[in-house]
Amino acid sequence: MILVTSAYGNQGKRLIPKLAASGARVRALRAGPGGEAALIALGAVEAIIGDASDPAVLERAMAGVESVYHVGPSAHPQERAMGFAVVDAARTAGVRHVVLSSVLHPVLRSLIQHELKRDIEEYLIESGLDFTILQPADYMQVLRCRRAFETSEFQLAWNVERRQSVVDVEDIAEVAAKVLLDGPAHYGATYELSAPGCFTGHDIGGIIARVTGR
After folding, report:
1. Which of 73, 76, 77, 196 yields a CA-CA distance of 20 to 30 A from 114?
2. In what order do the strands lie in the sheet with 26-30?
3. Per-residue pLDDT tens for 48-62?
4. Phi/psi at 201 (nearest 5 deg)?
5. 10 Å Cβ neighbour count for 131?
6. pLDDT tens sequence across 66-78
7. Is 34 exposed, middle or buried (0-12, 13-18, 19+ CB in 10 A)?
């Protein structure tokens, strides 16, 4: 059994069908109320609704699980505590392999979401569990681009001169499925996930302009 947290998020919605198609049994965990039917429709054999920082929820979610794929809610006030709780519960339950979705360049101290994920990486590495860490770049599907397509105005929350890498979430899910299914071949590994190129806001805006013809 493979447990996927944040199961109806950007990664979970793409990962669960890939695992199910391979014949893996998936238990899906999501915090939002309801939604069990949607998770089952993705291919999960069981859906649990509950907070991933709640020990009782995690005890139930980890029962009989061999591998865990954990995606924390980025920059959430409880992200660090949630990640620690997932690692602790996995260790208590005798889980064989924990795969953590972190972030590209967690060493960047100026970004709080990177600091949180870096701390979870450290906690996992020191847990004694077999682990794999994925460090994806920003998603290509990120919602901040939607306004550019709708209104022809592209905005960023940071300096448009800052260069950044991006990655397709479908590719992240493909890598995650391979790591989970191949197991021991990836124990102790950390993989940076990025598509080719490194772009400024001007570069991204230019690409959108070419696609839209505006």
Report:
1. 196
2. 46-49, 26-30, 2-4, 67-71, 97-101, 130-136, 189-193
3. 998 888 899 999 999
4. -60, -35
5. 21
6. 999 999 887 778 8
7. exposed
